[in-house]
Amino acid sequence: MQKIFHTKQFMAGNSPAVRIPMDMAFPPHTSLVVVREGGRIIVEPETLEDVPELFAKLGKHHTGERPEFVEAERNRD
């Protein structure tokens, strides 16, 4: 179920800020990433949990073998 909370931007020192309710907050000391996509600002935890999924996607394009460099013969005229 999607939660919706309406708020307004305010200034906290020299930085724009918003308040979010406690039941929507991340755990204390969670490292966060802020991404702007057009008119949206997305705040999400910075995590390495997505790395296995990224490697799985890479696996479709990578054979796991490292091709060795083979120098082509050149005409030395």
Describe how the helices and strands are arranged.
Blueprint: E1 10-12, E2 15-17, E3 32-37, E4 40-45, H1 51-59
Antiparallel strand pairs: 1-2, 3-4
Summarize the structure.
The protein contains one helix and four strands, in the order ββββα. The chain has 77 residues and is of the alpha+beta class.
Q: Give, in order, the helices and strands.
A: EEEEH
- Give the C-alpha Rg: 24 Å
What is the topology, as strand order, of the major beta sheet?
A: 1-2
Low-confidence stretches: none
What proportion of the residues is helical, as a percent range? 10-25%
Structure description:
The protein has 77 residues and is of the alpha+beta class. It has a domain at 10-59. The protein is built from one helix and four strands, in the order E-E-E-E-H. It has one helix spanning 51-59; strands spanning 10-12, 15-17, 32-37, 40-45. It has a two-stranded antiparallel sheet. It has a two-stranded antiparallel sheet with strand order 3-4. The mean pLDDT is 79.
Comma- or semicolon-separated keywords:
77 residues, alpha+beta, two-stranded antiparallel sheet, 1 helix
